[in-house]
Amino acid sequence: MTAGAVFFVCVFVEILQNYGTICQDFGYDGTEGPNYWGAKYAQCVGKHQSPIDIEVTKAITKHFPPLVFSHFDEPIQKAFLINNGHTVQMKINSDPKPTIKGGPLSGEFEFAQLHYHWGQNDTVGSESQFDHHTYPGEMHIVFFDKRYKDFTEAGNKPSGLTVLAFIIIIDEHDNLGYDNFEDGLKDVIDESANRTFNNLDSLSDLTRPEGERSFYYTYEGSLTTPPCSEVVTWIEFTNPLPMSREQINAFRKLFSKNGPLTHNYRPIQPLNDRIVYFNGADSKLPMSHLTTVLIIVACVYNIF
Ligand SMILES: *[C@@H]1O[C@H](CO)[C@@H](O)[C@H](O)[C@H]1NC(C)=O
Ligand SMILES: *[C@@H]1O[C@H](CO)[C@@H](O)[C@H](O)[C@H]1NC(C)=O
Ligand SMILES: [Zn+2]
Which of 190, 226, 229, 217 lies closest to 82 in space, CA to CA? Predict the structure, then answer.
């Protein structure tokens, strides 16, 4: 097959599989690495890419309406976990799906999938940075605008997607909300391996309780993997997701076809003409208080 034909098949498979379940035509190293994505995926060299370095003092405080989370507290009846060669992804195969509306969003968005980013060691792994600091990992929960049929259709529409992002930090205790999930990770070590769950922990268990999801930064950006579509409203919560060292290590034990999947974070991209907003609605704390907590926690655990 010629390179052109391979590319065509890849794109086609990607569309079918909601991005990269099968096709391994991008990676994080060498000629498959982020610096080369633009050659095959033009949008990856766009002007509104993600992730970014959020400069806390430059964010504009704005009072958005409250975020409204639906079905975040209920156990997920049927979940599907897959190692797609780039990350471990969880989809939900039962109804009703969790949804989100409010905040910076116009309309209601439905859960599509969630996945994680991590690094070779605890000093790297998050995609987003806060004042140039990186963290050991980041969780992304991807939603699509319900005006559209599905993730694929919304992925071509302006503001068609939103991603809820949580920075992962190291805690001395295991995060008990991840007991079942971690058990599932052991079954998806190899690329394309998958497993199903009945009654997986709720999205609130896998993130933070609702009361801890009101402070966030938001900006317009892109998917952080090819095709890097600039259709994403990012919502980056300031309250981090704690996990133990062992729990973060479990992600590093996954494999892609090319070997151990030790890291899967994209470097930060220029902000260019964009504005980052900080949601200060019902804020009882100064703007950067929680980010300061993040940084202090990170210092205590010596990850800088
Ligand atoms: C962690 O990994 C990064 C990326 O490979 C590397 O630059 C850094 O030196 C490593 N840090 C430690 C403490 O091993
Ligand atoms: C899930 O894994 C099984 C093998 O364990 C495989 O036959 C099946 O095709 C996989 N499903 C997906 C969607 O990758
Ligand atoms: Zn992601």
Answer: 190
Residues serving a catalytic function are 86, 148
Residue of minimum CA distance from atom 14 in ligand 1 = 121
Please state the domain extents for the chain: 41-300
Q: Please give the pLDDT value at position 281.
A: 55
Q: Dihedral through CA 178, CA 182, CA 183, CA 186, nearest 10? A: 170
Return the CATH number of 41-300, one of 3.30.70.120, 3.10.200.10, 3.40.190.10, 3.40.50.300: 3.10.200.10
Q: Which residues are near ligand 1 (CB < 6 Å)? A: 120-121, 123-124
The per-residue pLDDT for range 160-201, each reduced to its tens digit, is 999 999 999 999 999 999 999 999 999 999 999 999 999 999
Q: Indicate whether 131 pLDDT > 50.
A: yes
Give the count of beta carbons closer than 10 Å to the beta carbon of residue 175: 19
Contact between 118 and 139 under an 8 Å Cβ cutoff? The reply is no
Distance CA 88, CA 91 (A): 10
Distance of alpha carbon 125 from alpha carbon 118, whole angstroms: 4
CA distance linking residue 260 with residue 93, whole number of Å: 28
Predicted confidence at residue 280, as pLDDT, reads 79
How many angstroms separate the alpha carbon of residue 121 from the centre of ligand 1?
A: 6
pTM exceeding the 0.85 threshold for the entire prediction: yes
Inform me whether the pLDDT recorded for 232 exceeds 50: yes
User: pLDDT tens-digit profile of 242-258?
Assistant: 999 999 999 999 999 98
What does the alpha-carbon distance between residue 155 and residue 282 come to, in Å, rounded to a whole number?
32
Residues near 169 by Cβ (< 8 Å), separated by ≥ 6?
A: 135, 136, 240, 241, 242, 243, 294, 297, 298, 301, 303
Nearest to 287 by CA among 65, 42, 93, 58: 58
Q: What is the pLDDT of residues 56-73, one digit of tens each?
A: 999 999 999 999 999 999
